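Design request, tokens follow.
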């Protein structure tokens, strides 16, 4: 899939990169169901890649269709389809909205348009990302090392209304100390934790009232430092025998990172480094000038392979047991470090 973001001289250190979903839509890389307003590939295993951002996505048409990770929506629906206060009970068919009422408006230079109170302006039809994970995590993998800057987050209607009124399998968050939150953590390019976790409260019952924002809220991710992937984890005080009861959804847009120098982006490998074939099915070959180390992480940022080469000119990596999908290969040789995205078919 074609990935497009707002780039500014990406080979120069300290450049800011902002996720731009509208550009991908305009290019035809993202298509929507005209009635419901969701990405037409939601119920497939199609990749969701925008420039340096790879958003984990898995889907299937079985059992009526399901997905996990991230998908794209644009309808801005704020209706209640299934809480105990609703006469309509069909969240699965209507899971594509967000409580801000649409995607974030931008100006001609890609900057976020805001009202006089500093709130991001929204509009139906502008794309945004929806995140869901029954396991509690949604992962964004980058194609190298970047400095985390921030992201806009928004409540999804399903947990918003269930938190307010209670649902078929959830209770209202109406006790002092109740919360529903997203915690963002960083991993480096070999899957190790970085920086300090960032928490954002999607819902909080405090001082006798439930507080939930319906606006796109900017969340500062700079405490995470330099990252190779970002992990978004949902937790709630509404838990049962099988874990969190709260519907595990939230919305995301305008994720922003900054390059950390020449190694902060994935660039064509130096002339001394070659990684082939790509896509790969059985064996991956890496050649270079006195290879020192090779490391591979999967799309969730977890380390799947690491080898200290001690100056070898060529390595062969067996990959037949790896799952299908995208991986990031980091090669350090006598000329420096390069990153390369590969696909296991």
């Amino acid at each position: 899939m074609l990935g497009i973001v707002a780039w500014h001289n990406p080979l120069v250190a300290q450049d800011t990169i902002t996720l731009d979903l509208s550009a991908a839509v305009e290019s035809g890389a993202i298509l929507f169901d005209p009635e419901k307003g969701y990405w037409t590939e939601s119920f497939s295993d199609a990749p969701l890649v925008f420039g340096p951002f790879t958003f984990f996505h898995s889907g299937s048409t079985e059992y009526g269709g399901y997905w996990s990770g991230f998908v794209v929506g644009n309808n801005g629906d704020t209706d209640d389809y299934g809480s105990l206060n609703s006469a309509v009970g069909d969240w699965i068919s209507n899971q594509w909205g967000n409580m801000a009422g649409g995607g974030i408006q931008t100006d001609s230079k890609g900057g976020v348009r805001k009202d006089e109170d500093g709130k991001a302006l929204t509009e139906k039809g502008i794309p945004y990302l929806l995140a869901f994970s029954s396991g509690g995590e949604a992962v964004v993998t980058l194609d190298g090392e970047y400095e985390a800057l921030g992201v806009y987050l928004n409540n999804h209607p399903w947990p918003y209304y269930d938190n307010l009124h209670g649902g078929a399998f959830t209770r209202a968050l109406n006790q002092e100390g109740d919360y529903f939150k997203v915690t963002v953590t960083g991993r480096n390019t070999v899957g190790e934790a970085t920086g300090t976790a960032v928490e954002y409260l999607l819902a909080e019952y405090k001082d006798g009232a439930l507080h939930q924002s319906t606006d796109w809220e900017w969340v500062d991710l700079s405490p995470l430092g330099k990252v190779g992937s970002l992990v978004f984890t949902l937790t709630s005080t509404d838990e049962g025998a099988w874990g969190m009861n709260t519907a595990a959804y939230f919305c995301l847009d305008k994720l922003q990172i900054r390059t950390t120098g020449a190694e902060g982006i994935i660039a064509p490998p130096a002339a001394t480094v070659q990684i082939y074939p790509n896509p790969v099915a059985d064996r991956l070959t890496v050649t270079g000038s006195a290879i020192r180390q090779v490391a591979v992480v999967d799309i969730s940022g977890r380390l799947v392979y690491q080898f200290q080469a001690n100056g070898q000119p060529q390595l062969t990596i067996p990959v037949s047991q790896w799952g299908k999908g995208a991986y990031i290969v980091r090669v350090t040789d006598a000329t420096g470090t390069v990153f390369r995205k590969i696909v296991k078919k």
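Comment from the thread starter after seeing the answer: thanks! The radius of gyration is 21 Å.
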